Amino acid sequence: MKARIKYIWVALIILAIGLAIGQMAFLFASSMAKKPVERTGPLHLPREKATRSSVAVTVTVVNVGNNDAPPPIPNKFSLSQNYPNPFNANTMIRYDVAITGPVRLTIFNLLGQRVATLLDQRQLAGTYTISWDASNLPSGLYFCRMEAANFMQTRKMLLVK
């Protein structure tokens, strides 16, 4: 019994240390994000690890909290699940475009018939959200398919009236 209690205490201490380290890392990153830092020049290593060559280092910390900064460009294509799901008449569909090019968003019913084409145009790389109004369609299961470059993904959507 004492050994079990000892292991529980050790686990709690390790958990507390992990939380403290995570908090310190967050505070450090937050403080660095407020002031961009740039350093260019040779990297000086401690004497015991010194080498004959020098290395040029450039470090730039970007302000994460700056609302004027452009949003990051996604590194892959993706089609997110619609929100809300199930939905009544209107739903939002979010998708990521990794490279500029033609993008197509198509809605199909359970029989595989195309009921709507939400988007069929060239788009810049980025994250987008599109709204779909299905008020003129009957309740049922629908599929949203995204096609871009050599990417294709399909999501299920449930319309409930």
- The strand order across the widest sheet is 6-5-8-9
CATH architecture of the largest domain: Sandwich
| Tally of distinct domains | 2
CATH topology of the largest domain: Immunoglobulin-like
First-residue to last-residue Cα separation: 58 Å
Unreliable residue runs: 25-30, 32-63
Q: For the residues shown, what is the average pLDDT?
A: 74
Reading off the top of the CATH hierarchy, the class of the largest domain is best stated as Mainly Beta
Strand content: 35-45%
Radius of gyration: 26 Å
H/E series, N to C? HEEEEEEEEE
Give the overall form: extended
Key terms for this structure?
161 residues; alpha+beta; Immunoglobulin-like; 4-stranded antiparallel beta sheet; 3-stranded antiparallel beta sheet; 1 helix; 9 strands; 40% strand; extended
Summarize the structure.
The protein has 161 residues and is an alpha+beta fold.
How would you portray this structure in words?
This protein folds into 2 domains: 59 residues, no CATH class; 82 residues, Sandwich (Immunoglobulin-like), CATH 2.60.40. The protein contains 1 helix and 9 strands. The longest helix has 33 residues. About 24% of the residues have low confidence.
Topology:
Elements: H1 2-34, E1 38-42, E2 56-60, E3 78-79, E4 90-97, E5 101-109, E6 114-123, E7 126-133, E8 140-148, E9 151-159
Antiparallel strand pairs: 1-2, 3-4, 4-7, 5-6, 5-8, 8-9
